[in-house]
Amino acid sequence: MTELPRRTAARTARLASLPIGMAGRVVGGWGKRLAGQSASDVSADVSAKTAEQLFAVLGQLKGGAMKFGQALSVFEAAVPDEMAAPYREALTKLQTAAPPMTAATTHRVLAEQLGRSWRERFDEFDDEPAASASIGQVHKAVWHDGREVAVKVQYPGADEALMSDLRQLSRFSRLFQALVPGAEVKPLLAELTARMSEELDYRAEADSERAFAKAYDGDEHVLVPKVVASAPKVMVTEWVDGTPLAAIIRDGDIDTRNRAGKLLSEFHFSTPARVGLLHADPHPGNFMLLPDGRLCVIDFGAVARLPQGLPSPLGAMTRLALDGHSAELMRLMRDEGFVRPGTEVHEEDVLAYLAPFTEPVANDTFHFTRRWMQKQAERVGDLRGKDFRTGRSLNLPPQYLLIHRVTMGSTGILCQLDAEFGVREIVQRWQPGFADPD
């Protein structure tokens, strides 16, 4: 492979094969049920084949399609248990593997970005990629000063492919919504599209990573690799070895799961106050646990700029919902634009809708489980339930959209980790507006 498939017709055809293939499997499933197979067996079989095709196509296309798949991956914990296994396997593959560029293509990009004498900057350069990302791949190398480094090289044509993918995926948003019940797919796609121009410029990513690395330099809990060099389509950072969260999710012991979960939660809540930025790409491939117990965080292409820290109304709403103050909660939500203008909704119903989401901070410790996240997804997604009708009256203001997605994504990872720890203490420390009443 020399570059991303850029021809719109070819990429559209691959994406269009997804709903066709899924529809065919559903029809085939009806036939099997008529022939006497149980509904659960047919459902599991259809889910496995659908997951396999969905993420195979997304991974093959890379670009925006793979980016979308990675964003969906954190919602795997919301998928019902009987469907989760094939999704889990396919999502893990998507996060860690994609067809690589040829060495010749990689060298061409390096020459364009770092100059014709790019090899002189390295003592060693491994042509075999060590990892793949949604818009680039990573090579291990040795910098001219002897440091081991990670070299991220952007796929040629990533910019065109990215936008083409996201336009096409938007057409199928309802289909993906049905497959992943915990995700708000349409706004997720809109938000991803809006941020793609930032992710395509590795210089902007390097600036963000430098800010995080400076803030966490010497931190006993978090490591952010230092940036060594950057160009628009190539970025060089210090190399770090660790255990990916995907591996801990798969077979980590209880203590390791709990530690990883606590460190991830602390990082999520603390960065707006410490850096003025929020790491906005939460999926397991971007986090590792180091041998010394620290959390290593990589990939800063997507960030939310929060120079004033996390908005205090979020903390206040969480506190009011936790304490059952429905009238005050309703007033604050209307003031902040969380209730659609002109809609009639009862404050008790809004409290009932939001209160279960505050369970993690209701006690000193909380056990994040897939079942808990499934219950929340089922509760707000049940078309016949009151919570679904209440949810349709609520609105997510644009300034809160990215914060909400990152919080949901981080919570999804915590549920995949099956982590139990004191999240209340973390929120108490870092979320303005939440503090315990005197």
From TrEMBL:
Family membership: Belongs to the protein kinase superfamily. ADCK protein kinase family.
UniProt KW Ribosomal protein keyword: no
UniProt xrefs under InterPro entries: ABC1_dom, ADCK3_dom, Atypical_kinase_ADCK, Kinase-like_dom_sf
Signal peptide limits: none
Superkingdom per UniProt: Bacteria
Domain ABC1 atypical kinase-like intervals: 93-308
Pfam families in alphabetical order: ABC1 (PF03109)
Record keywords: ATP-binding, Kinase, Nucleotide-binding, Transferase, Ubiquinone
Species the sequence originates in: Herbihabitans rhizosphaerae
Annotated GO MF terms: ATP binding; kinase activity
UniProt KW Nucleotide-binding keyword: yes
Name of this chain's protein: Putative unusual protein kinase regulating ubiquinone biosynthesis (AarF/ABC1/UbiB family)
